[in-house]
Amino acid sequence: MMNSKILFATNRVEKYGNVSGYLEKKGGFSVIIANDGNEVLRHLDNHVPDFAILDVNLPVLDGFQLCKIMKSAVFRQCETVPVILLSETYGTYMASQLARSVGAYSILHAPFATEDLLLLIHNKLVHGRGTADNAGSLKYKAKVMIVNDDSDVVKQFEHRMGQEGYDVFVEEDAGRVIHAVEIGRPRILFLDCNMPKLNGPEILRWIKGRMPETIVIVMTDRGSEFLAIELMKAGANDYIISPFDIKSVSAICEDSFKKYDMDLTIKRLGEIELKLHSMVEGMVDGVILVDTHGKTTRVNGAGKEMLRYLDINRTDDGSLVSLNSVGIKEIYHEIFSKKQPYVSFEIHTKGDNEKHFVVVASPVNGVGGEKTGVIIVLRDVTREYQLQEQIIRSERLYAVSNLVAGAAHELNNPLAGIQLCTDLVLNDPSISEKAKKYLNRVQKEAEQIQSVIKSLLTLTGNYTLSKERVNTNEIIEEIVAQKANQFDYVAIKVAKLLDEKLPLVFVDKHQMRRVFLNIIENACTSMAGVRNERCLTIQTEGCKDTVKIMISDTGPGIPEEYLTKIFEPFFTAKNIKYAKGTGLGLSIAHSIVHQHNGRIYAKSKLGTGATFVIELPVP
Predict the structure, then answer these.
(1) At the N or C end, where does the chain have fewer CB atoms within 10 A?
(2) Which CATH number fits domain 385-460: 3.20.20.140, 1.10.287.130, 3.40.50.300, 1.20.82.10?
(3) Which regions span the lipid bilayer (predicted)?
């Protein structure tokens, strides 16, 4: 309808592109813009538009509310005004249901093609309220193509479809049909499958492959219904039987356009659903949708991966009961009863794969605002926790380093004086044997203090490495030979599995000896209270760019939760009866290996002994 008035209500005109300009230029409409619900109501009081396009996210009153008001007794004059709702957020089937329930003609979900909007408007204005008198004045007309070689049939169709406001063109040559369809791109195609040399199924397959939005209506003779059915299987939308009731053609077109409108809405909805699915699946956070009964309705890929680390408790019908120690009923109580906008908590898993998760649960709102379920978002913050622990350890080590450096300086000076004076007195021939005995003890104690200071300096890294090329097998052989009597005394069998072709490593021999010695002494201590066979296994292995040293014992083992903590300074497992010492031995070993660009870690379970692995780079 030339000069038909369209009320376009949106708070941001640019949100859907240049819709108003397109409708004015291509459709010949007069478009009035309203920015909020109040402006829409003021306009409706004074003017009744021919069509209304309402943004569902309008301020003051949204599109759903305005559509319902327009269809009410308050605005009786607007009751027959068609309304199309535009949405950039509500891309769900429930939004389409709500649109129909408030009386909307259709709903389009952004992004949408502006020509689709124009077509919906024309379909409704022409076929819903249009007449033969005004249809010819339309600037925009849907294209109808008639493929038929019967001139009488063609004339009837051309006359009738022209009266209905369609732009009609004809193709009588069966060999030119595909070319004509490709050039003309009709909205509706009437196809006479009885034309000589016309391959109906082939044309239909081509059209549905290239232009699936084209509506194809098959024209066939009476008695050929089975042929029409086969062609509909091949892609035809509908069929009409000859002799044709030309008056029924309009109704067939109307029904076809309704089907097209429905398919268009479903297509747009499907695109939005696909984008939403892609977005959720692309998230690094786990997303779990749960209904009001605890049934899981959707889990994204990240969520499935994270759930493997959690202790999940379910009922017999699969409903969620708890995630680790967090009960689903508690979440529902906070959200549904206490009306909390969200609930957050933390989950910490233990074991070989220690994980930390931050969990946020919030309600899922349905049509009308009722709660239809809960969305649970899992975020893996293990790395953040590890970095935080690393910072704490670094700060602790830094504080210890400063303390040790200062204490070492203050202690070394008097120690040197004590040792010098002790030596002088011991070299005096006039002192008694009893005095010598006490002086020798003083000297040993001073040496012990000096050894502790050196260990502390090693822990803090306040020393210089004297590196050389070394065969670690030689260091191990030396330590085993030195401690042979001790092994025999405590009934420890030693098994050496040394790689004869072990590559040399570039290390400080004395510091690396201290690493091996600390671990071996810890292993012997752990086996002190063991009644079964005590065995120390030392194995070396040359890998590509690494030398690996593995020291295993048959002691009681180390609890899994301690495996990441045993290398921390001053950590001691006080609840384990065989744990002794100040907690510095493994910390010193870790510091030395780290300064050699190596790696040290432990593998153990309670009751199965422990294995310490040292990996050193090969130059």
Answers:
(1) C
(2) 1.10.287.130
(3) none
